[in-house]
From TrEMBL:
Keywords: Membrane, Transmembrane, Transmembrane helix. The keyword Membrane applies. The keyword Transmembrane applies. Pfam families: Zn_Ribbon_1. Residues 7-28 form the Zinc-ribbon domain. Residues 72-103 have a biased composition (Low complexity). This is Zinc-ribbon domain-containing protein. The chain crosses the membrane at residues 46-64. It comes from Limosilactobacillus antri DSM 16041. Residues 72-110 are annotated as: Disordered.
């Protein structure tokens, strides 16, 4: 219920207590009908909904952000571990590759390595007489053709030189000989004491083929050990 008006709604003059007519403009106060109050309940509900939506969005964003922050360290750690693992793998593989490349044999690298390559090839492939050689201590000498018709014949066929091979501890003559042709072919022999017997090489093979065989079978390091100890 609205109380009595204190001012004239028509002219704004102050109303005397108990008066029914405005003394200034004659307005009858009984005709006064106050304007209905604005309904604000709808606006309040709308504001409440907006605030609720904003709050939900804020909470959702905060939850997602927290979840991402919690997951990132694990991802970073996994990536770091994988990177480290790859780095370790690469670093361990590189020296191996370099070592393998360094150890590979090349024909003509040095006379001692060429001789060591012939010895290792002949014994590992099981050529008669050569397969019994063991260890890494050998002697390679130039066969003296004088007084030995067989060596003289082999020397003539091998550019004037026949190489005799024996274990360093061996005493007496050796039947193991090889010669080199001008085209790089190696002739590997096991000669007998019978001067009348013909001599046919056990194997004729290019020096490049010997080097390839030893490299493929991982014997390059062993050849180098023989070459270091080889006596001439």
């Amino acid at each position: 219920m609205v109380g009595p008006v204190k001012f004239c709604p028509n002219c704004g003059a102050k109303r005397r207590p108990g008066s029914r007519i405005c003394a200034k403009c004659g307005y009858q106060f009984k005709n006064y009908k106050p304007a209905p109050a604005a309904k604000k309940s709808g606006k309040k509900k709308a504001m409440a909904i907006v605030i609720a939506v904003i709050a939900v969005c804020g909470l959702t964003f905060a939850f997602i952000k927290h979840h991402q922050d919690s997951s990132n360290p694990a991802i970073a750690t996994s990536s770091s571990s994988q990177s480290t693992g790859n780095s370790d793998t690469d670093s361990s593989a590189t020296p191996s590759a370099n070592t393998s490349a360094t150890a590979k044999l090349s024909p003509g690298e040095s006379p001692k390595l060429d001789a060591a390559s012939v010895i290792e090839y002949a014994r590992t492939t099981g050529l008669a007489g050569w397969s019994s050689l063991s260890g890494t201590d050998f002697v390679v000498g130039i066969g003296k053709a004088a007084g030995d018709p067989t060596l003289g014949k082999l020397s003539d066929e091998g550019q004037g030189t026949a190489y005799k091979v024996a274990a360093a501890s061996q005493t007496g003559p050796t039947p193991l000989v090889y010669t080199l042709d001008s085209d790089g072919t190696v002739n590997i022999y096991r000669i007998s004491g019978d001067a009348s017997a013909g001599v046919t090489p056990l194997k004729r093979i290019p020096k490049t083929a010997i080097a390839n065989y030893l490299n493929q079978h991982g014997d390059a390091d062993k050849v180098r050990q023989i070459g270091i100890k080889l006596e001439e």
